[in-house]
């Protein structure tokens, strides 16, 4: 099956939002052996939309159109499709009933702006939207089936799962190939690719190996077509698993925090954190995970030196002698958090996020992290030369990864420990 994708929205063209829907669609199609052959993004312009609909519908079986189904004047997908199909817009009774029910459940008044979402190309069929106000719709064009979907990712996901993919699998042949995705942290894609190439110069021809960098994580993909794909992928993973054992977080979209919460729960342990440069980022990652209260109940953001002294009992002399970004300070921060919380494990961070505040001895990007238990605390210095927000996210992830490695009993230094600060000239 040949599939094209048309995305619309001025916000996409202006960079106000990042296009995540095309990646979502591609990933949903992959298990069936289907791939997008062409993708085009245009702004909210009727002439561009009609031109793009004509262009993309001529060389595919399915044209997915994403965006432009809302209630505002710049939502033009229905008008554009009606125009190229040579039909008028008409109020669709099923779409109107859906809108009325959606509003009633929320105690909203159905106004004229919302009612626009029921004005669809005459003769189209409805694609049910289980969660949102705007239904999708579909009709043929140039021998291709055009399927229009809303741009809200959660609505698109539900429609793909419950409506679109079941309809496509019933109509078109599809393979039962296998695609497995693994979340990694702490290894660069070029380094990992080189290691795999050197270890396995004769990589199996039927298994596709791929990487996707998405800071701070790295995704490794293994795919194979046909009924034997699952076994081929399993064999390939078994071969490379020793190479990635220390950086493997989990499968699919497993996050670092999910893995750490799972390991803590399994071990029956509780974690606390003491943060400075990350500003609560570690605690935020943990508390995004349902059930995190089983393993985490206290974190301290001690941004100033005074807060470090008052909340965590960091010594004034320690701060004066070594500075806030130092091994002695993070060790005392971790010890203070353990005393305050009664937790089993702690992680503490203090660093220079920038863009200012660095010195020749401690340039921007320098960070000290301490982790462990009350009787076994250790600390290391890292160098993370990134923009401030990325620095905070990456350092928060490193902090959790150090806890993960301890819980999994992974020996040796993490690979990212080699990221030292540059030597002074």
Q: In summary, what is this structure?
A:
This protein is of the alpha/beta class and 425 residues long. Helix content is 40%, strand content 23%.
Strand content: 15-25%
Number of domains: 3
CA-atom Rg in angstroms:
26 Å
Structural class: alpha/beta
CATH homologous superfamily caption of the largest domain = MoaB/Mog-like domain
Helix content: 25-40%
Mean pLDDT: 94
Class of the largest domain, according to the CATH hierarchy?
Alpha Beta
- Give the total of beta strands: 17
Q: What is the second-level CATH architecture of the largest domain?
A: 3-Layer(aba) Sandwich
Strand order of the largest sheet: 2-1-3-8-7-6
The helix tally amounts to 15
Q: Main β-sheet: number of strands, strand sense, barrel status?
A: 6 strands, mixed
Give unreliable regions as ranges: 419-425
User: Which descriptor suits the 3D outline?
Assistant: globular
CATH topology of the largest domain: Molybdenum Cofactor Biosythetic Enzyme, Chain A
User: Termini, distance in Å?
Assistant: 60 Å
